[in-house]
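__Protein archive entry__

___
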Amino acid sequence: MAVAAVAAAAAAAAPATTTTETTTTTTTTAQQPAPKMPPPAFDLAYPPSLEPYNTPARAWLAANAKSWDGLATGALVFDRRGRVLLVQRAAHDSMPLRWETPGGGADDDDASLLAACARELWEEAGLEAVEVVRVVSEGAAREPGSVFTNRTGTAVYCRFAFEVRVRETGDRDGDGDEMEVRIDPDEHADYVWASEEEVRRERVGDKEIPITNGQMARLILDGFRRRREEPVEGERKVVQG
């Protein structure tokens, strides 16, 4: 499902880097696996600035004259306390037991990159996306899109990461969280909600959370920065998936 390591989105945006692939915070291992299939249908709101991403991956590659082997997406989900959701890669996966945002490759049958992001979030965390808020990059001076290779270096991909708002399920298990995260133990070992400072320290309480790589860390921190500095666009469009 997930490839190892997909805003103002200009049609010719060229990513600049390539990578091989004290807040009270709770960390919880999910007891139930996430659904294997996405919801049968959803309405996903997004601002007009993200319209360039409301297109299938292959169409985006063709329109932007990119020769990458594929596109991937990442979802930055924040809770009401401003903490970001991170998932821990399985011990048998590449970059074992390291932490990242939910995400993965855009499939040919995904209606758009936005829909691909919503699907991956559902499959990896059991969360239903209701709105794509903004695109994030690796920093204020970087265009959206992070180029990376597969573990053998034989294929090149580009990941576009988005801040996503999800449907709240309520505090069903009494841990204070308003969202019920469900991970697939075949793909992820654990999940955590982390503050910006905890991401920087790569530690939540007594738990170490080494991020997969510098590229992923920069994307996560840029998500925090944009939430502080960028206003949320008022107008919304809706894509159905």
About this structure: The radius of gyration is 16 Å. The longest helix spans residues 214-229. The chain has one domain: 23-240. Residues 2-14, 22-31 have pLDDT under 50 and may be disordered.
